Every structure is written in structure tokens, then in C-alpha cells.
Recover the amino acids of this structure.
């Protein structure tokens, strides 16, 4: 098994663990961490593809994913903090409406 | 040697990913996420992507994870023991979905890349140069200049969103 195949398999496993984590946990913070796991798994797959092609293009995509992940973390954590201010506890089962 | 490091780091990455999902305390989950990010950074380095190794450490471990830790310690959520609570259906569904997805992805990757020997850089003369800062910068500022500029718009939207969400009413 080549190096690329091995890292691709690792990224597949991490992505699945992240997807299961989003469904399994009800704490939105841990769900966010699981989403970060999934984004990271995709980053690893993109870097593996860049390695197998021997070009730099795959890494540009990874940079975009990093940027979107940072933006998503900021906005999502802001929403969670706002939710905590309103209800004083955080559980995704509580969320029924999106009004401020 | 490189194979051994790859194997150890791969196992560490998968184990820490499981730790993120299974740890009852959110701070422990964040620590496991840090371990996962570090092991993925080392995998990037083993794939000759030096710039992405540094970017992963600075952006993920340095910025995003610290933000997570701030919010986790600010909100101090109660522990969640997923193997003790009553929601059996949710648990069984989530785990079987995860296993199904893993089997699907692993099967697809092995079918697509199991036999093909990629033109990986180890043998060629320019081994590993595609991941250098130089190659990355040339690609980013010539071919991908427009996406790079549009990235700033994404960050601006996130900035405004954070200010609006954080504003006290």
C-alpha cells in the first residue's frame, strides 16, 4: 500500500468519525469540533491528492478550506454564545427558532 | 523509518478523532482535537507539504482551537456521557451511519487508488518541491489570484457576523 493510499484511508476514517460525532453528541460545541474533524479529513485528502499529482493546486484548496473553517468557527461559536445567553444552557435539542 | 512514523501518526490521528467524539468533557474533546490537528500536521509534512504544515499549526492549533477553548471554558457545559443516557436510537443510528460511511469511503478509495501507483515525488528529481512556499506562492498569486482575493470577502463577512452576534441588546 502506497503512502497516498494510507493517508487517504486515514482521512476516510476521520471523516466518518466526525460525521458520527455530529449525530451522536448533543453539545453544540462538541458537534462543532466534529465538523472541524471532517474539514480536517478533507484537507488531508486534498493534500494527498496534491502529493499524488505532484502539483501545488491541491494546497490552494486547503487554504480556502482553512479560511472557511475559521469563518465558520467564529460565526458558529458566536451563535452558541448567544444561545447560552438567552437560555443559560446549551443543548441542540433546545433550539427551535432562530430569532435573536 | 518513514513508514513507521506514518503508521504511528496515522493511528494517533484516528485515536484522537475517536477521543473528540467520545470524551464526556468538552475541554478534553478540545485537547483531543489539538492532538488530532498536530498529528494531521505531521502527516502533511510527511506528504512534503511544508507550507501547509506551518499553516495548519498556526491557523488551526493557534487560532481556531484557542477560540474553541475560550468558548468552552466561558460556557462551562455540563459533561455528557453518551453511553449512559437513554437515547439508544440516536446512538445506534449515529454509530451505524458512521460505520456505513467509513466502509463506503474506504471501499471507494481502495477501488480507485489501491492498485494505481501514484506518480509520487520520491523517485523524481524535483521530489517534494511542490509543497514548498515558493511553489505554493506562485500558484496562489498567479493562477488562483481571484479566489485568494475573494477569501478576504469571506473573512469580512465573518468579522461583521461576529460583531453583530456578539453585540449585547
Amino acid at each position: 500500500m502506497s503512502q497516498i493510499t494510507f493517508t487517504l484511508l486515514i482521512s476516510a476514517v476521520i471523516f466518518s468519525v466526525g460525521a458520527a460525532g455530529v449525530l451522536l453528541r448533543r453539545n453544540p460545541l462538541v458537534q462543532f469540533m466534529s465538523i472541524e474533524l471532517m474539514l480536517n479529513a478533507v484537507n488531508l485528502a486534498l493534500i494527498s491528492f496534491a502529493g499524488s499529482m505532484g502539483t501545488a493546486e491541491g494546497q490552494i484548496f486547503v487554504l480556502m478550506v482553512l479560511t472557511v473553517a475559521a469563518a465558520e468557527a467564529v460565526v458558529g461559536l458566536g451563535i452558541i454564545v448567544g444561545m447560552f445567553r438567552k437560555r443559560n444552557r446549551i443543548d441542540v435539542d433546545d433550539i427551535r427558532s432562530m430569532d435573536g | 523509518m518513514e513508514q513507521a512514523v506514518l503508521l504511528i501518526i496515522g493511528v494517533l490521528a484516528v485515536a484522537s478523532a475517536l477521543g473528540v467524539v467520545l470524551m464526556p468533557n468538552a475541554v478534553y474533546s478540545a485537547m483531543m482535537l489539538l492532538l488530532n490537528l498536530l498529528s494531521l500536521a505531521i502527516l502533511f509534512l510527511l506528504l512534503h507539504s511544508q507550507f501547509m504544515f506551518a499553516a495548519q499549526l498556526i491557523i488551526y492549533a493557534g487560532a481556531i482551537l484557542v477560540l474553541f477553548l475560550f468558548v468552552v471554558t466561558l460556557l462551562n457545559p455540563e459533561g455528557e456521557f453518551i453511553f449512559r443516557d437513554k437515547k439508544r436510537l440516536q446512538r445506534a443510528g449515529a454509530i451505524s451511519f458512521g460505520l456505513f460511511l467509513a466502509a463506503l469511503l474506504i471501499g471507494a478509495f481502495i477501488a480507485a487508488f489501491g492498485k494505481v501507483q501514484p506518480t509520487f515525488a520520491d523517485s523524481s528529481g524535483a521530489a517534494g518541491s511542490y509543497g514548498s512556499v515558493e511553489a505554493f506562492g506562485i500558484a496562489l498569486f498567479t493562477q488562483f489570484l481571484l479566489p485568494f482575493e475573494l477569501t478576504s470577502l469571506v473573512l469580512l463577512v465573518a468579522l461583521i457576523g461576529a460583531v453583530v452576534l456578539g453585540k449585547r441588546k
User: Anything to note?
Assistant: The mean pLDDT of chain A is 87. Chain A touches chain B through 70 residues (CB under 8 Å).
